[in-house]
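queue> holo job accepted (zinc ion)
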Amino acid sequence: MDKKCDGVVRTRFAPSPTGYMHVGNLRTALYCYLIAKKLKGTFVLRIEDTDRNRYIQDAEQVIFDTLKVCGLDYDEGPGKEGDVGPYRQSERVKQGIYMKYAKQLIEQGDAYYCFCGHEEHHADTCEDGEVFTKYDRHCLKLSKEEVEKNLAEGKPFVIRQKVPEGKTSFVDAVYGTIEVDNSELEDMILIKSDGYPTYNFANIVDDHLMNITHIVRGCEYLSSTPKYTLLYKALKWEEPIYIHCPHITDEEHKKLSKRLGHSSVNNLLKNGFLPEAIINFIALLGWSPDNEQEIMSLVELIEKFDYHRINKSSAVFDLKKFKWMNGEYYKAMSADSFYNFICPQLQKYPSIYDRRELSDLLHDRIECFEDIDTVLDFINDLPQYSNEIFENQKFKVTQEVALDILQKILPKLESADNYSKENISQIVKDFIAEQNAKNGVVLWPLRVALSGKMSSAGGAYELLAVFKKDESLRRIKIAIQKLENN
Ligand SMILES: [Zn+2]
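queue> job finished
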């Protein structure tokens, strides 16, 4: 076991406030949370708000809200100050934390001032036919006097890491040992001309000062990690354990894009995906437990999660599977809580219809809000239909039989006033007994008349209870009229 594991495990989620939470970000937060909770450690939230161009007012709130709704409570972070705050990088900049270490690196010869500004100082390098551009180290050649003169004149500068010659390797818990030739690494900027640290540099400094033991992030950072390793070495800091997570792609194996909408956690919530289902599904994007279990609560995930089982290959965001899983979570809800959850979505259905009955119709039949309109497509308007849909071979129902049944049951329904499901179904059952008929012979024409469809959500009893008296009678009378006009 790694030395870091002997102490207290500390993980951090370090998002930038962009006003948008990508499912990949939430997965990082979740894995950080699971590792910390599983190993009885501390889950830290740090806001990386040093990129002032991208800063969006109130965008932080999206981060807080998303973590809260998903149950990923952080132990330390903004509003939950621990010993290593502040937890916003903009506040840390004011304390001069980053500049201090950047200057230390300059003194050691591991970093240097660069005054190139926006001028092009990039050399094209050919690597296996691929061209990539990197900074040509123009300012590395400046003498100490030239540097001091520039600084005295107040010339704007950035501070760059000086990558030494040789090779650099690091160990990743998922991808194994990775070694690169340092010639492939650019002298990355540590401090920008506005005095703010770059994302990369601030991360290293903060992770060290906050005693972070496990770094979870997307595998797009694998290529930058050797530069981090060099900085840890230069600063004589112990490197954390790296856990890089695989890419998340859509079903076409393309990067999960904003365009499709389901890369945004907020959009998923708006479309009726339950936080529990989102967490469950996202946990499985790149990780799986040692059994085949798919439905897992957050508590079960803490128990089962093992970062050594994270996969290297890309994780496919299978929307079909996600919808199925969400549907399973719906089914597991009580009828009451499903009703409370779905009710705001039913406002476009006239209140004369029993919304509780509509909710019961939907409970086992939808997987997200998008499905509501499909399942309830006959509720607001009776569809246009042809009389043939009353015919049913199995129940030996012809159009004549359907007409006969509907004509006979109409007065029973007209004389009833209580259209609760219990009451109205008892009236229909009594009628079936009185007619000495098979259930289907009565229920089929009734359901078709009410829904205007061959197949629909809910049977005759449910639909009578949904529509209540006036609308039920209206639809049955329309059916009788159509069948009489044959
Ligand atoms: Zn320069």
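queue> The pocket of zinc ion is lined by residues 114-116, 121, 138-139 (CB under 6 Å).
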